[in-house]
Amino acid sequence: MATEIARGAVEGGSDARASTPRPRRFTLFGLMGVALALVVAAVALTQARQFALLKQTVVYQDDYVVLSLYQVEAEYLRLREHWVRALHAGAALDRDALQLRYDIWVSRVGLLHNERTARLMVGNDDYGEPLGKMDAFIARADKVLGTAEPKPVNAAALATLLPELDALAGPIHSMTLSASHHVSEQIAERNSAVRQHNQVALLLTVFLSLLVLAFGLMAMRQMRLLGERQRALVNLTAHLREARQQAEAASEAKSVFLANMSHEIRTPFHGLLGMLSLLRDTGLNARQMDYLRTATESADHLLTILNDVLDMSLLESGRLALSEEAVDLRDLLREVESLMRPQAQLKSLALHIDTDPGVPEKVRADRTRVKQVLFNLVNNAVKFSDRGVVVLDLHRASGNDGSDQLEFVVTDTGIGMDQATLERLFKRFSQGDESRSRRHGGTGLGLEISRSLARLMGGDVTAKSVPGEGSSFSFRMPLHAITPAPPPVLPATTAADPAAGGVASLRVLVAEDHPVNRQYMAALLEGMGHRPFFAGNGLEAVQAIREQRFDIVLMDLHMPLLDGVGATLSIRALPDGVAATVPIIALTADAFAQTRERCLMAGMNDFLAKPVSPERLSAMFRRLFGGGHAADTAPLVSAELPASGSTPQVLDRSTLEAALRAMPRDRLAYLLQSFFEQGPEMVERLRVALRDGQALDLRVNAHAARGAALNFGLSALAQTAQALHEGATHVPAHEIARLIQRYEQLLAASREACEAAGLLEPVTG
Amino acid sequence: MITRRRLLCCLAAALPAAPAVALDAPAGPVVLTVSGRVRKPNQGEAAHFDLAMLERLPQHSFVTRTPWYSVPRKFTGPLLRDVLAACGAQGSNVRATALNDYRVDLPFDDAQRFDVLVARLLDDKPMAVRDKGPLFIIYPFDSSAELRTTVYYSRSAWQLKSLEVQ
After folding, report:
1. How would you classify residue A754: left for phi > 0, otherwise alpha for psi between -120 and 50, otherwise beta?
2. What is the model's pTM?
């Protein structure tokens, strides 16, 4: 729903923006920009014209022209005065003075011929005419006063010229007036032009201001739109985040459900497998055997799918944790080979396993997971090859960062794949192609799981292929070599011990996942003079049986990877007759008849309830391996659990005493010590499992805790652990939390009880 | 010629009054009189120049456009500051007077700031009175836009007759 809302918001938003408003706004902006440019240009033009006008005024000096006209008149008047005075009798004729006045007046008149003056007065009759008259007069007067011929002034000549000089007065005066008027007009004209320019400039300024205002408004609008858009984006992001969280939560819930379901399905499924194997021994005819084989194959296939789905859901929810242990690589490859060879032979394929001598003997790795990846790769190679050879090659390599790596390369000569197929290869539920999927079966999860596991280890799985020629898969993982150490001394006493009850020293394989329980069993068996060997889970147990001979197997029912029932089924199905018939005794804290029945159906020989007491164990050995009084052994299932509801003792003395009989006191103290030391860690694991909603983890841990507690006679602790184990999947969380708290309290109480009983040194500091 | 004769008379009358460490006395007709704060007068309180004396000062010339001629003209003559220095003139203002009684005040500083000419040749020819001669104060208008204003056009006095240093 949230996603839909979010998508709606996105589409709505993009619609609103993608349609008309944007181009329209851009057009508006463009128009305003053009208008602004035009206005600015007009302002510039006006100013340029004003400047030109001003410059013209300066250059042509119109005022000056008027002044010079006036001066022409003034000089004319002064000249006439001198002229008249010179003609007057009585006064000495000052020729120099007259000459100077005449020259000055002539220079003034010369100025009127100036181009600029002419320009100003063009088309003015009051100008041209007087000028002509003056020029004419000067031409005549120069004959008397000209600089060219310096001769005494002829008074008569002056007198002759005087009327002509007088006649100039009128025209010169009217010329001056006319020029004055003319210039005034021009000035008025110029002023009006300036005024007009000012008006235009004012108008332009107003327009400019309006434009700027409009721009400002648009910018504000734009800012507001941006703000709105940002708010919408923030909302959208919040919606999307919420939607993603919901989707992730849903996916997580599905993964958990899938993991739980797979686990829950496997348990009855093992029962089904057991029944099928029992059915085989009931004297079936050939047809029935055939049906049975088909049913078993289908069941095996179904089991593989279930395991894949469980792995996938664990990987997806990030709950799959890798364990690290010392792994003998060559041994591991032999195991792969022995498991895969029958399949290869069935298809007439050669299977070569090649190890480079440079590969160290032992490395630190998760043996089970490495093996799982290799199984998957080799299995695929065999599955998709109809002829030729499958090669598994192991060598050292260096990673991109130069680190040491191990590289397993599985090459086949099968049908191969094209590029498109290769690209799809590691995707979920995909196989080469649909037809292939139908032909070869499988979940399509195998390669994805393999790659995920490889990446979890810090490596990767890659593929190369040529259609029709075959494929090559490379599995790389970091190389953590272990320098060879002296072989560990097996905690075994070779000589038969009288305490063993007449039974010779036996090779005993104990399949048990809890370390404290393993130590307990080691102590018990060694105390009885037997040689214990250990397997951490069902797969390891099966492997051990295939590789070595054991006299008896003590099989815990609840183990990771492959539980006791499954391991028993695998052992019973081994081709090696001796290995397949090894006696298997179930060890479990469950005392229900239903459990016992499951064990027996799976092919186990007997059933031993935890806590395992030395008496019962030796009775069991006597019954199976001789010793006279096996027949009168008490019923094996004799450990009575306290009735539900009653408060059990913190410490069951009889169990402890039995344990003390089986081993030295200090050894038991050591075991108790390590059990209590691991106590807080166990509580923490339970709490983490509860917090993360990992019902499966809770169950497994509670079961392990219960088994250990029972062995030491810590009854109250064991009962709480059992309650946890049983309630893990359906009891409300707060109840589980209360049980865990009770477990923690009882842990402390049990420790105190052990200290009080003198079994444990009190903690100091 | 008449003019020259008259000037010679004036010169003869003025000669006895010339101080010992003074400007040379003018030999020809006086064309320029510098009066006022003059420390090296050659006749009474004033310094009198004939054309020859002006010719003896360092000569400069430039071509410039002016409002009075339609084409650029070449002006030649001594610098105003050399003329003022020759007669030991010192002051803040110079009042120029023309034959036509035109009068204008020049800041004394103008002579230092600009290469102002006391032009005696126009296009390498002596100037007659009717051609704005014989002397013409001319600013180098084309060298600076600052000079191309009415203020400096009005300071360019033609038909220059005398300078009074104040």
Report:
1. alpha
2. 0.39
